[in-house]
Amino acid sequence: MFNLGVIYADGKDTIPVYMTKGVFYYEQAALRGDVQAMYNLALIFRYGQDCIPADLEMAVQYYEGAAQSGHINAMGNLGVIYFFGEGSISPDIDKAVIYFEGAAKGGHVEATYNLGVIYQYGRGNILPDLAKAIQLYEQAAQSGQLNALYELGLIFANGYDNVPPDREKAKDCFAKLSDTSMWSYGMMGLAQIEEDENTRIALLIEAAEQGMAESRTSVFAPTMVCR
């Protein structure tokens, strides 16, 4: 059932996209406990696709069904929905934290980073806990989450709460960013901690010539992955 859902939802070879059939077969698979079918249905109903209108309440039902069976991307998306609120669903930070924690335990890098932000600044019933935030940022950064690496660089560059400035740690974070798609932020960070004025100016010019990105990747961006 699931494979037929994929074929009709995505189209394959000579078979064109036929979304209503795709949804039908996904629904049949979901009734039989197919977790990925539940997740795919959640994506379809959350945003609407082809002739299928968006239905957030239906999407949440499918996300929750998948999350109960351990689907970490479903947990991550539910965390996003409950953190910000969406459509008729009001923000519920405590529920968001539960889903982010579940996703993070399963290795969901974005959820790990999101928890770092929550623990750094405090949200809902979560009080600020910088040590916990740093631990989460470091965990996410080790898995390639660039925003986490940047936040660590800022914490160590400026000092934050009870964490004193640590120029070498900040330099390490920013230098690692310099080899990534966020390299301009790495250059700006290195300039921030550079003691030599000429070198600092050179770093700023290098970043400016290539153009700073207008904004970083959304902090709480959902992850959408289909099997």
Textual characterization of the structure:
The chain is mainly α and about 230 residues long. The chain folds into three domains: about 1-65; about 70-145, Serine Threonine Protein Phosphatase 5, Tetratricopeptide repeat (Alpha Horseshoe), CATH 1.25.40.10; about 155-210, no CATH class. It has twelve helices and no strands. The longest helix has 14 residues, at about 195-210. The radius of gyration is 21 Å and the shape is elongated. Residues about 215-225 have low confidence and may be disordered.
What proportion strand? Answer: under 5%
Mean pLDDT: 87
Give the N-to-C terminal Cα separation: 14 Å
Q: Remind me, CATH topology of the largest domain?
A: Serine Threonine Protein Phosphatase 5, Tetratricopeptide repeat
Oligomeric composition of the shown chains = single chain
Largest sheet: none
Q: Please write the string of helix (H) and strand (E) elements.
A: HHHHHHHHHHHH
Could you say which structural class the secondary elements and strand pairing correspond to?
mainly alpha
Tell me, briefly, the overall form: elongated
Helical element count? 12
- Tell me the domain tally: 3
Summarize the structure.
The chain is mainly alpha-helical.
Secondary structure: elements and pairs:
Elements: H1 2-10, H2 19-31, H3 35-47, H4 56-68, H5 72-84, H6 93-105, H7 109-121, H8 130-142, H9 146-158, H10 167-177, H11 183-193, H12 197-210
Helix pairs in contact: 1-2, 2-3, 3-4, 4-5, 5-6, 6-7, 7-8, 8-9, 9-10, 9-11, 10-11, 11-12
